[in-house]
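Handoff note, outgoing to incoming analyst
You'll be picking up this chain. Sequence as last confirmed:
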Amino acid sequence: MTVIQNTVEINKPVSEVYNFLSDMNNHEQLMPDNIVNWTSTADETRFTIKNMAKLSLRISERLENKELVSVPIEEAPFPLTLRWQLEPTSENSTNATFIIEAGLNMMMKMMASGPLQKLVDYQVNRLKEVLG
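Most recent structure output, in case you need it:
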């Protein structure tokens, strides 16, 4: 399993960060420009990564103010788990870690690791921008 992650500190209480991330409708704000055809509900999202793949995700696990786990609803190009882990660092500050766990063979790992790391980096930075 390939694990790709990044952590960012956000100057908001953990409950505020959790509430934002627990609604899939908010995740569109965290996506780069190459994500198109976005549709979502509070629990699910479907989108297309331009010139690559369609993806459908559902929040499969919620641990309040600690963790949100999303998994594919339909067949994905490879086994995939997306995980947001939250840790309060003070009353008004939270560390948010975005983790992608992907079942990649060697060839896929060489091709996909860079773009997946860019996606993780982009999303944690956007989360900090959006939540300020």
